[in-house]
Fold this protein.
Amino acid sequence: MTEIHNMTVAELSEGLSKKAFSSVELTQHYLDRIQRLDKTYNSFITTTVSFALEKAKLSDELRTKGQAGPLTGIPIAHKDIFCTKGVKTSCGSKMLDNFIAPYNSTMVSQMEDAGMVMLGKTNMDEFAMGSSNETSFYGPVRNPWNVDTVPGGSSGGSAAAVAARLAPCSTGTDTGGSIRQPAALCGITGLKPTYGRVSRYGMIAFASSLDQGGPFAQTALDAAMMLNVMAGFDVKDSTSVDKAVPDYTKNLKDSLKGKVIGVPKEYFENGLDKTVESRVQDAIHVFEKLGARIQEVSLPSSPLSISVYYVVASAECSSNLSRFDGVRFGHRCEKPRDLEDLYKRSRAEGFGDEVKRRIMVGTYALSTGYYDAYYLKAQKVRQLIADDFKRAFAQVDLLIGPTAPTPAFKIGEKTDDPVSMYLSDIYTIATNLAGLPGLSIPAGFVNDLPIGIQLTSKHFDESLLLNAAHQYQLETDWHKKIPQSCI
Ligand code: GLN
């Protein structure tokens, strides 16, 4: 039998229903692994041991009563950006180091209602700003494939935890690539749903017009099972979309014959590591073998996406983060002289350098006289980027490309050069600007480090994305590889 921690969510679900093991046993197994191995990876900020065992016991009782669903009793780790009632929710920041959320985010409630067992809260870049998980107040996360390298960011803890088999699945958020890029660098599957498909209620806001929560798991099938629970309208989130939720596991077996997959030529022009490129070409051949037709397309405005993103995201974050003022949430400075001193020192002490950089850029871009030149202009270019996708999707069903330009880089390699760090998201950011869904799946190795390919579809076409990823995973076994030190 496969070691229990190497099983997928689907396999664990079957094991639980056949009573091969109980949820309490399963949960204890993961908690033991976290305790033993996570000193190295630092993928968790908080573990919720007694809460998890209590939940696991309850889920076993539900099963005895015949009331278990497919995810009942399965452990999960949540990114520490999701509010969890009674549990510290830090967002990777000193600012919220003492913040105990008074309510659950919708995402957390949905997983809990499905009977899932929360193991703890995962490490992340501070307020989800980063591509390497090095901006966390709680220290960097280490990539289980090579502990001298980064796991990607900002959901690096969630990705590393699944890669190291410290959790069978986890949640993340993706504002410019933070699910897909760490999934690629850690060799797992990560899905960013269409903007509005999954509720953002209780997910601490970074850039509200771009943020979207989604699943990390070993396989597309597991991601589909999770999306079945996450997706849907939420009265508490005015941007969530009231649209029927299909069963995302239903079409996974469909053939890809006749599907047209577009290859954006701009993705292969500059900055893409040659060995990563050849893995992407290999993946394209697999899709051809599966019956898909490959067609070159052009996304002419996509090279502008990083510049647009850093204006829009910074502007929105400067507004969202103004709520952290030392009065209502989190960190407050010692002995403030007056109100202004309270604001200034609480924010100066509570936020890290990257967060401060974004707040300053965003405040500048929104200020009188510069609003039109920067923010408004960026929104116009954003529309051009969205139009590119619209044109491409008039010809093709899916787009394929690299998820990130290189495999995992060394810890510290890019910390002094924010622009080179920002370029890690060159292939993922445009998807967020257009509100589209995207997914990264493992597609091979370069220098013993995993690399990912990204698939993008039309709005609300997650079924096709997952179908294509599942078919690819039936044909390949990259998603089954496990870091040597974690077996
Ligand atoms: N790396 C990008 C940034 O630093 C995207 C982060 C994200 O998706 N949360 O903003």
About this structure: Residues 258 and 419 are 40 Å apart (CA to CA). The domain at 4-259+396-486 is CATH 3.90.1300.10 (Amidase signature (AS) enzymes).
